[in-house]
Amino acid sequence: MKNRLGFRALAATAAVALSALTMTACGSGNASAEQDNPYNLIEPGTIRVASIGDSKPYTFTDAEGQFTGFDVELFTDVAHRIGIENVVFTGQDFSALLSAVANGQFDVGVAAIGITEERQQTVDFSDGYLAGYLTVLASPEKNIDDKDDLAGKRLGVVQGSLQEAYAVKNFTDTDIVRFPDNNTAVSGLNAGSVDAHFLDYEAAKDYSDRYDLENALDVPSFDAPAGFAIAPENDALREALNKALAEAMEDGTWKELYQKWFPGSPMPEQYLPKAEQTGAESAGDDS
Ligand code: SNW
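^ Those are the sequences you sent over. The predicted structure of the assembly is below.
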């Protein structure tokens, strides 16, 4: 019995070692590796997702420490559609997220990550699934209505975000203050170490509601819709996710999640079922 167990353990170890070897040697070309692990996942049967914990309602951790939000639920739905039940989210600093995906620590990055050419140097992306605004969050007392009102002010940004890049380029008379995450930046805002914080529209709205703050200034970011960041050259995973994402849009799942997480926000047409796109009003009055 001992022997048999020992042999089995040995055989299992050998099989793992062998499949690791063949995967390294032949990439995804090996027939049995493809069968066992068609999407080249780090751990077959599990998708490991890098995310961030303080961008409610896109991606955030709830009171129990579980990841949830629009992006989290959409990605989980899409992962289930491609046959992966086990979806494990882990929080990262935003600035570390894309490199963590690129260097193989995670299969995917999910955090309202805008698709840009620059980021495509590091990772691949799924098709876009959300397009919206970058928003300056501030106390109403600051009277910030436009770019000029930011002159001479201190503006927080999350390091590595599109907000950082936009602010550096366009708010040239403003002091840009880099933070690792939104919570730290909003603490700074509430404590007065910055005058405003620049983040994604829906997350700004959430902080506005929680503290006495307002969405002071919106900048369109429709040319950089959010996508799922995927380990480079994992075409099998990217193509499967794209197909499943299109299905989630076409069967109304995307719309349902949008209404759940962004209630009252204008309903963009391009991700709705095709039958609802032509002639639909743009302002979410579809009830
Ligand atoms: O470019 C937008 C997109 O149009 C949509 O509004 C969702 O957010 C964005 O992808 C921008 N998001 C920021 C970025 O990609 C910040 C992401 C974050 O804080 N998690 O840098």
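The longest strand covers residues 214-220. The chain has nine helices and 13 strands.

Shout if you want it in another format.
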